[in-house]
Design a protein that fits this description.
- The structure is a single chain.
- By secondary structure, the chain is of the alpha+beta class.
- The chain folds into 2 domains: 51 residues, no CATH class; 89 residues, no CATH class.
- The protein is built from 6 helices and 5 strands.
- It has a 3-stranded mixed beta sheet with strand order 1-3-2. It has a two-stranded antiparallel sheet with strand order 4-5.
- The longest helix has 15 residues.
- It comes from Araneus ventricosus (Orbweaver spider).
């Protein structure tokens, strides 16, 4: 029906709800890293239609999962612990420094409010990663061992 209006559908963007992932799968997409296929053929024009997971929603899901589960594993099998981020915040608060991050209580106590995109990206930022590595590798603080 949309095609009849003259609109060209070139992509679909949605959150990571299971019904949306199932729909993408039914359309011929495979959204796993081993056999990634993020497009399907339009049934009328036969042109590729790209399927995109909403990046802002995915970042918030990653943060919520990390914080609620306590840990995740990266693509190399290395554990990423929420405790590292909590420890960094605690250290910054105790010492009165920010180590070039924007971590605050709102970032750590994320359950008190609906996590906003800005907060999620600040927690999962390069500056937080750099600060964590500095604590682990340069200062060799025990609470950051394995970070």
């Amino acid at each position: 029906m949309i095609h009849e209006t003259g609109i060209d559908v070139i992509s679909l963007t949605f959150d990571g709800a299971s019904v949306n992932l199932s729909t993408a799968n039914c359309l011929g997409c495979t959204l796993n890293s081993q056999s990634l296929n993020t497009s399907f053929k339009h049934p009328i024009t036969n042109q590729d239609v790209c399927v995109l997971l909403d990046p802002s929603h995915m970042i918030k899901l990653i943060l919520n999962t990390l914080a609620s589960k306590g840990s995740l594993f990266d693509c190399n099998g290395k554990m990423i612990k929420w405790d590292y981020i909590v420890s960094l915040h605690k250290l910054q608060h105790q010492e009165g420094l920010l180590v070039a991050t924007q971590l605050g209580t709102r970032h750590i106590e994320w359950k008190r409010e609906k996590i906003k995109m800005k907060l999620a990206t600040q927690v999962l930022s390069a500056s937080v990663a750099d600060a964590l590595l500095y604590m682990a590798n340069d200062l060799k603080l025990p609470e950051f061992k394995g970070c």
